[in-house]
TrEMBL record:
UniProt: [4Fe-4S] cluster 2 binding residues: C185, C189, C192
Cofactor(s) it depends on: [4Fe-4S] cluster
Domain MTTase N-terminal: 24-144
Domain Radical SAM core, chain residue ranges per copy: 171-403
Residues annotated to bind [4Fe-4S] cluster 1: C33, C69, C107
Principal EC category: transferase
GO MF annotation, one: 4 iron, 4 sulfur cluster binding
Gene this protein is translated from: miaB
Protein name, as recorded: tRNA-2-methylthio-N(6)-dimethylallyladenosine synthase
UniProt keyword terms in alphabetical order: 4Fe-4S, Cytoplasm, Iron, Iron-sulfur, Metal-binding, S-adenosyl-L-methionine, Transferase, tRNA processing
Amino acid sequence: MTDIANLEPAAVPAPEPAIAPHGRKVFVKTYGCQMNVYDSERMGDALARDGYVSTDSPESADLILINTCHIREKAAEKVYSQLGRLEKMKRQRRLVGGDLMVAVAGCVAQAEGEEIIRRAPVVDVVIGPQTYHRLPEALTRARAGERVVATDFPPDDKFEALPKATDKTIRARGVTAFLTVQEGCDKFCTFCVVPYTRGAETSRPAARIIEEATRLAQAGVREITLLGQNVNAWHGLGGDDREWGLGELLRRLATIPGVDRLRYTTSHPRDMDDALIQAHRDLPELMPYLHLPVQSGSDRILKAMNRRHTAADYIRLVERIRSVNPDIALSGDFIVGFPGETDEDFQDTMRLIGTVFYAQAFSFKYSRRPGTPGADLDGQVDEAVKSERLERLQTLLFSQQRAFAAACVGREIDLLIEKPGRNTDQMVGRSPWLQPVIVDAKAGKIGDIVRVRITETGSNSLYAAVT
Ligand code: 5AD
Ligand code: SF4
């Protein structure tokens, strides 16, 4: 399951080159989930080894790399119109004897493949999420005049083939880091494109993950978020020759010196096993926050979505998790207006939200994604009805979010300071429950974990003072 906490496009800086630079500059634009952010960083590492330096202005770039997301409606059309604008830029460059290379990566690249080359003459390289390690080679071929489409699912492990980030790069990226441990999805929820764009579920080996986490911690990272479309489906052979699940992996990662905080996202309710639930009881490093999408509170709709659990199963699961750690903040994803959703089904979702109480949530109107079973179902819901339901749902979720934030006031927490605030006399970190927290700059420096008391709620953040 993809997490869309970060749907706003984010420019990911490519790291410093490990070899003598040839002077080429790359501008990377990332859309979509945190897994795309992680992938952009890995591609940035590969390009840095190839001599590229990063730039945050497309105008000065020799290569523009767009890492795309396919989860939303018209995602591909938006990419095509962006490519149209780049086409113009390339033409202008050529008029003055310069050039521009354009590479499209990510889930739109995977889904559209050759079609991108046909429709967007500006594009030199189309590269799917499983082939990022081949990006430097694809660019070399493109420079020789070829237009390259690399969207197969090769047997080689891209993470192994991709170069590691240097310490300097890791430090430049901050004290929190993403680490992809699992990719792909075999769940085939009937609304979702992910099983088609990211392929079958695969887990990275435990040893590689431990190695990467150790490197991150040695370079100064204090909080690691494990990523996967179905992160809690992660499994692998552990150091003790037993098959581990995510709970065991988290236990092991928590022992790495310097790994002070762990998070993971996104989880499927069916993969929440006892070991993982117990990790929330036993590991102080594991932050009390769980993104556990349910999508709907109606059993009829859950069945049509192929979620393979009922609303009652989900509520029981939440109770089990809260019984080991009552302090846990729950977050979820919701879809309104899935084909066939009646007012009554929608009321079931509202009731489930009332029962569970979410600290944070993401909600969407169902959008028809060609190629998914949901797109062909009868009973597509009217847009106006979807909008009206979404508004009611978001009002409820937002009131819960505000109530959760208000209940934090007066609590003492450990705050990891991540970056300077908007005002120079402020610093910003995250609460254990993932809310942004603003403190006085004198509270500490980036990377410090300081004891603070939450004093006030802001519109989207909390204010705190050193205790
Ligand atoms: N329509 C609406 N929302 C969707 N999501 C995924 N596919 C669709 C779709 N076709 C939402 C789900 C998922 C989140 C990442 O995006 O809630 O959990
Ligand atoms: Fe998540 Fe279902 Fe999509 Fe898999 S198919 S990524 S479980 S929403």
